[in-house]
Design brief:
disordered C terminus, Rossmann fold, elongated, Spore Coat Polysaccharide Biosynthesis Protein SpsA, Chain A, single chain, about 725 residues, seven-stranded mixed sheet, 3 domains, alpha/beta
Length: about 725
């Protein structure tokens, strides 16, 4: 049995890597690996992963240098001639030289017989006969040159042996002789590039024709079925009599998955569809995310990361991620499989690191956010707990094996210090096609990991579920601390989210927790933003409880005092059990703060305060007591002084929330409405500057009203409300 080598040349670019993958998959489907040795000669270094894949498929990957016989730009089209310098091909009975943009339905070794060089005639008369004749007339040697009709354009002629460069069958005993002459004549045409003009890239094919003639080699045409041109126009292809196609030469006529496109001619497309189906199947057995996505970003930037990251799906992803990116905006975020960055490009992150196996994707991403970090670092090389938040969307569904699936998920959890947002399949495990793979129910895998504290479903897009995964190491010692998910939801509900995040971080630092009550996440930024006006001024917090606001305001230069009458006195040694109720002597945390333990109605300060604020206190006392507190607060500020209040409301109503620590204070009807609060303030001589009602706060059992008022006129002045409620 004759020994046969099948060889191609590629460059280390996404286009050619994809072609080589298709080429190998099609050869796999024909049984070529059992009948021949397969070689891929690479100009430039292909990635380690691609090399390993091609070798796992059975190919020999050889690095070679580019063609250097000419300085012409068209010399790149002569890179295939470098195969004649490859020692690996020198001992075979036959060598099949193939372009990588060919896919086979039958093994090309079937043409390896006899003593003939075989190739298919050029598809079209390029260059035209008159150009070829110009060269023939100027040859300084006598060659038996003849012109023959072009099969697909019979009214025009070309050189005998002017063949399409996609497929050559060369007997081994003349391999090097042909290579020597081919190089000689290719250089002849390359040196005449100004004459060839737009046909300069045909120099290698013309060189082959003259090499065959010059060497007197026996030559036979391959029929069109061996190297079928699917890239030609439909009207040309429609004239070809139906045949069994053995090799499809698709050039750049392919889809966004890198598979050859149909031609519009039914008998051709039926065969091509069958072959594409076989290639898809073999691709799944030898799937490469790197090859696929590098090609996608090169070929179809508009589609980029795919339908899962475009249109409605893109909007859903951004909506899911943005609250968490806000919460972690100034902390390290790792995005595994960042792709073309369309999902995260507008996210408010200061310490973002996007990683991807696709260099093309990283190049695109770096152009969109040059201030961010991007790399192709391997997951296994990233240190433990080095990122507070890890994103891993649409990565697991593209892992072709259970081992690769587990590798990505294991490392995502290991690398995260606090949380992971990850997507995958739970309810659609039967999806197994194309570039989609499913191995195990994602939630089951996550819940079974000993490092994971809890797993929460946060949404979906298309057929993919999305979860927030909280690590045990991220759990606060204080059970009353707001959860990561709730904090993120809070960030989604306020325009002052950056201020909120700073308050959450400060609260955890000084108190050990931030209240899990969702209304506080709305109130605290509102109060903090307004109270900053009072830097250098005396401010009183009425019913302070255990709150971050006094400490935060003091750190910003506000002179803070607090008062609270709660019977529970908070001790520093017991901080892990604190909640927002109780009396706290804030001087234990900051000696600039003065705290008073008692009823504000019996409090007599030495001097007035420029501002007084009270966060969700007045709804928790009887209405009679509430009116006394309001009167007392107003009495402790001068004209022009400010009062800032918030109160919980019954959802969907104007009624003030009637409970305190789970106990009913008085009936809703007697407890009053927020309108009563306004009247009570007016009655004490306060002018309303702002009222803002917040309804439907996600995660909150109450609605909320926020009020700002200023003391501008004497007590008992006729009622006047200059604020406007904002629903």
């Amino acid at each position: 049995m004759a020994s046969v080598a099948i060889s191609c040349v590629i460059e280390s670019k996404p286009k050619y890597i994809m072609q080589a993958w298709n080429w190998l998959c099609s050869l796999k489907g024909t049984g070529a690996f059992d009948r021949a040795n397969i070689y891929i000669h690479s100009i430039g270094n292909i990635s380690v992963d691609c090399r390993r894949l091609f070798e796992r498929m059975g190919a020999n990957v050889i690095s070679i240098k580019p063609y250097s016989g000419s300085t012409s730009k068209a010399a790149v089209y002569c890179n295939k001639l470098q195969q004649f310098n490859s020692e690996n091909l020198s001992e075979y009975d036959y060598v099949v030289l193939s372009d990588a943009d060919l896919v086979f339905s039958s093994c090309p070794t079937l043409y390896a017989h006899g003593d003939f060089i075989r190739a298919k005639q050029v598809d079209l008369p390029n260059p035209p006969e008159k150009v070829l004749q110009w060269f023939v007339d100027r040859l300084d040697t006598k060659l038996p040159i003849s012109f023959v009709p072009v099969d697909l354009a019979p009214q025009q002629r070309t050189l005998h042996a002017n063949c399409n460069g996609g497929l050559y069958i060369i007997p081994g005993h003349i391999f090097h002789d042909l290579g020597h002459l081919w190089t000689k004549w290719a250089n002849f045409f390359l040196c005449s590039g100004d004459i060839l003009g737009k046909w300069a890239h045909h120099a290698d094919q013309l060189g082959f024709a003259l090499a065959v003639i010059d060497g007197g080699f026996q030559f036979k045409y391959l029929s069109i079925d061996a190297n079928f041109p699917t890239h030609l126009q439909k009207d040309i292809l429609a004239r070809i009599p139906p045949c069994q196609i053995r090799g499809f030469h698709y050039h750049d006529h392919w889809d966004s998955h890198g598979l050859p496109l149909g031609t519009g001619v039914k008998w051709i497309d039926n065969q091509l569809n069958d072959l594409n189906g076989r290639i898809r199947k073999i691709r799944r057995s030898f799937f490469s995310n790197q090859i696929f996505w590098d090609f996608r970003y090169w070929k179809d930037l508009e589609l980029g990361s795919g339908l899962g990251s475009r249109g409605d799906n893109l909007r859903k992803k951004r909506k899911l991620l943005e609250p968490f990116c806000r919460l972690f905006f100034n902390r390290p975020i790792l995005d595994i499989g960042c792709g073309d960055l369309e999902v995260t490009r507008f996210m408010p992150a200061k310490k973002y690191h996007g990683i991807d196996i696709c260099l093309e994707a990283l190049r695109i991403s770096a152009e969109k956010r040059p201030e961010w970090k991007f790399s192709d670092i391997e997951l296994g090389k990233i240190p433990d707990s080095s990122y507070d938040l890890v994103l891993c969307l649409d990565v697991l569904i593209h892992q072709p094996s259970p081992e690769e699936f587990q590798y990505v998920l294991e490392n995502a959890i290991r690398i995260s210090r606090n949380a992971i947002i990850v997507s995958g399949y739970d309810s659609n495990l039967n999806i197994q096609k194309g570039i989609i793979f499913s191995h195990r129910r994602l939630r089951d895998v996550l819940a079974g990991d000993p490092r994971v504290a809890n797993v929460e479903y946060i949404g979906h897009y298309r057929d993919v579920e999305v979860y927030i995964v909280i690590k045990k190491s991220a759990l606060a010692a204080n059970p009353h601390d707001i959860s990561i998910r709730s904090a993120a939801l809070a960030c989604a509900q306020t325009s002052d989210w950056e201020l909120l995040v700073n308050l959450i971080n400060e609260s955890r630092k000084v108190l050990g927790f931030f209240p899990a009550t969702m209304a506080r996440a709305v109130e605290y930024p509102w109060f903090a933003k307004r109270l900053l006006r009072h830097r250098g001024e005396r401010v009183l917090d009425v019913g302070a409880g255990v709150s971050v606001l006094p400490c935060w305001l003091a750190s910003k230069g506000v002179i803070v005092e607090t008062i609270d009458s709660h019977q529970t006195v908070r001790e520093l040694a017991n901080k892990q059990h604190w909640n927002e109720w109780g009396f706290l002597d804030y001087s234990l945390l900051d000696n600039k703060i003065i705290s008073h333990h008692g009823d504000v109605c019996h409090f007599s300060p030495e001097n007035k305060y420029e501002a007084i604020y009270s966060v969700s206190v007045l709804e928790h006392v009887h209405s009679m007591h509430r009116r006394k507190i309001i009167a007392k607060m107003v009495s402790m500020i001068p004209p022009g002084g400010r009062v800032y209040l918030s109160l919980d409301l019954v959802p969907g109503k104007d009624d003030i929330w009637p409970l305190a620590e789970g106990r009913i204070i008085e009936s809703e009807g007697n407890h009053g409405t927020w309108h009563d609060i306004i009247r009570e303030l007016n009655a004490e001589g306060m002018l309303i500057v702002e009222t803002s009602i917040r309804r439907g706060i996600m995660g909150s059992q109450t609605d909320l009203i926020l009020i700002e008022a200023t003391k501008t006129y004497p007590k008992a002045y006729p009622e006047s409300v200059n604020g406007k409620a904002a629903e």
